[in-house]
């Protein structure tokens, strides 16, 4: 399949659920802002996407106190359907519709897949509470939406690997959105949109297709540039202290070197 065909399916599904998605986002936007939609694509297509995921040996591993997962953005190395589904979510019609739902006038896709692409997580892997980087790779536009499309068949809530949202910060109560097969979650990214992925407890692969949308303006007037910032979970006191120190150190480096001391390799070099 090509991306325009996949985009057609996505668009029709969104049109059916548009009113309920608007209601969900409106009800949550004062804290973080999110919505999710199930059965985004025909099941056989999503199954093909899942089966096309590469072996973790051909992906980059991210392993630290912050996170433990496999990622990839150089999509021409893999089965073409993976690239097609990623860029299907960048179809101008879908961007416009999601912009209407989230009341965002200007939205731009990320053709470079800066921190986007695909990710794979297995047993004991995790993503600690964090704020996404506030900008695109050139620090010209604001990162405003995170799109997460889950493609692992029969993934149960008790397996872990689910999206956690912390609407009142990491010391407040979080709630969980099941990373259910064929579910798309759209979450706002700003300076209080803390989110994480719960540790996986089951011996299987949790696979996700990721996109970010950018805008000329931030969600809120008082926002400022920030790096991807991590925190420990409420019971991880030592880790939280270390991650806070890490955030300060990395932010200090970015103030001296606005585009980073080391050039990121998490982009699609086309």
Overview of the molecule:
This protein is of the alpha+beta class. 28% of the residues lie in helices and 24% in strands. It has helices at residues 3-28, 43-52, 80-88, 92-101, 237-256, and strands spanning 34-38, 60-63, 67-72, 108-109, 117-121, 126-131, 142-150, 163-166, 175-177, 183-188, 194-197, 206-215, 229-230. Strands 1, 2, 3, 4, 5, 6, 7, 8, 9, 10, 11, 12 and 13 form a 13-stranded antiparallel sheet that branches. It is globular, with a radius of gyration of 17 Å. The model has no long low-confidence stretch (mean pLDDT 95).
Q: Over the alpha carbons, how many angstroms does the gyration radius reach?
A: 17 Å
- Biggest sheet record: 13 strands, antiparallel
| Class of secondary structure makeup | alpha+beta
DSSP strand count:
13
Q: What is the topology?
A:
Blueprint lengths: L2 H26 L5 E5 L4 H10 L7 E4 L3 E6 L7 H9 L3 H10 L6 E2 L7 E5 L4 E6 L10 E9 L12 E4 L8 E3 L5 E6 L5 E4 L8 E10 L13 E2 L6 H20 L14
Antiparallel strand pairs: 1-10, 2-3, 3-5, 3-6, 4-12, 5-12, 6-11, 6-13, 7-10, 7-12, 8-9, 8-11
């Amino acid at each position: 399949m090509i991306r325009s065909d996949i985009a057609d399916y996505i668009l029709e599904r969104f049109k059916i659920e548009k009113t309920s998605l608007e209601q969900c986002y409106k009800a949550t936007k004062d804290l973080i802002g999110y919505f999710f939609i199930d059965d985004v694509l025909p099941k056989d297509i999503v199954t093909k996407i899942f089966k096309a995921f590469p072996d973790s040996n051909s992906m980059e591993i991210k392993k630290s106190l912050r996170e433990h997962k496999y990622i990839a953005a150089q999509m021409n190395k893999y089965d073409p359907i993976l690239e097609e589904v990623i860029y299907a979510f960048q179809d101008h019609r879908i961007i416009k519709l999601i912009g209407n739902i989230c009341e965002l006038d200007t939205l731009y896709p990320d053709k470079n897949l800066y921190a986007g692409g695909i990710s794979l997580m297995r047993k004991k892997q995790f993503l600690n509470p964090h704020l996404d980087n506030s900008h695109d790779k050139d620090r010209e536009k604001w990162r405003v939406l995170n799109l997460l499309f889950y493609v692992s068949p029969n993934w149960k809530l008790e397996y872990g690997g689910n999206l956690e949202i912390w609407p009142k910060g990491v010391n407040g109560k979080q709630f969980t959105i099941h990373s259910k097969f064929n579910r798309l979650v759209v979450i706002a990214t700003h300076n209080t949109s803390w989110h994480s992925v719960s540790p996986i407890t089951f011996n299987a692969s949790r696979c996700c297709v990721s996109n970010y949308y950018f805008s000329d303006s931030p969600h809120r007037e008082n926002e400022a540039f920030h790096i991807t910032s991590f925190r420990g979970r409420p019971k991880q006191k030592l880790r939280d202290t270390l991650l806070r120190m890490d955030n300060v150190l990395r932010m200090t480096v970015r103030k001296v070197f606005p585009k980073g001391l080391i050039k990121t390799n998490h982009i699609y070099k086309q």
